Protein: Aminotransferase
Organism: Marinobacter qingdaonensis
Amino acid sequence: RYAINLNVRGIQPSSTLRINELSNQLKAEGKDIIKLGLGQSPFPVPERVVEALQKHAHEKDYLPVKGLKGLRESIAGYINRSERMRCTWEDVLIGPGSKELLFLLQLAYYGDLLIPRPSWVSYAPQARIIGRSVHWLPTHAENNWQLTAEELDIICRDDPSRPRILILNYPSNPTGCTYTDDQLLAIANVARKYKLILLSDEIYGEVHFEGKHKSIARYYPEGTIISTGLSKWAGAGGWRLGTFIFPSELRPLLDAMAIIASETFTSTSAPIQYAAIAAFNGGADIDDYLVQSRRVLKVIGEYMHRRLTSMGAVVQKPEGAFYLFPEFSSFREGLAKRDIKTSQALCTALLENTGVAILPASDFGFAPDHLGARLAFVDFDGGEALALAGGDYAGC
Ligand code: PLP
């Protein structure tokens, strides 16, 4: 006899991982599947980073819980160089993926979770597993799916001293949209007014198509934690390395997370931490890799945007990351005749009838009948694309 924790009942395994397994299974059965479900970087890990991993393959020791000092220094250097926040190595925490660190944060901090709708698939289930309340903040397609300072204020003024975490992810999974400086400043001012903990999920911070990625930490340094990692800009999602960078004011939270880490995963594996030093130290080769990968993703994102728009879908042009979040409301009547009334039914029918795997809007916080979906435009040979982008790219 056993009982499953009530918080876990009714939660499905993460939809991105499920769609990936299903697509792989269908492919193995010989079906022609276009994998636009899982948001995995299509690019190979930069060569120098792979070499660093190989060089340290024999390192077998448990590392310090908060991470290797050399890696924490390297990440502090990276964050200072990119002018996101002023920090030292002691402000940096390493973990096996930013997803795991986010879970630790929610375990360590007592408070409600505020997230814009739509948001990445794992924020809300993590909060539910821990038993925290989730408040979805409305955003709208015609506003580029950007949270406004006003919407945030409306939620917070209700109970101004309630402890809360706001997660802001930009460039965004699932919309590909990002924020202007002015918008970040306005949101930061509200966050300060209500003393929110602001988790700035910048895992796609290097994957922006125009200009320079800027962090909201510039405007709310005392309350912002930056989240990033190797998964999206260095192609190493499966290696599992993420990092949080804290302001010194929130050091007790870092320490509390490290206590939980010490009683759970202990530390991230050594070879990967050494490899991450090479990635975060950067250099001309990494800069080239980033320039070329942004170039490739921009071209594909714009192409997909044109195609979807010409079909009649409503969709924002991506400004970063590798996602599009189209709405198919104009097809509602035709789809209803085929008994397709939910985004989940739409995605199932697409996979069965065309072999295209995408994720329903319901996985990102919308009601089942919101006819939208997320496309991850990553089903191409990233190595070949980088070679093309670096070479005779004209008109790719
Ligand atoms: N945050 C966002 C918005 C993501 O899309 C992902 C991965 O898909 C993550 C965090 C987690 O990344 P990782 O755990 O690989 O660092």
The pocket of pyridoxal-5'-phosphate is lined by residues 39, 97-99, 120, 169, 173, 201, 203, 229, 231, 237, 242 (CB under 6 Å).
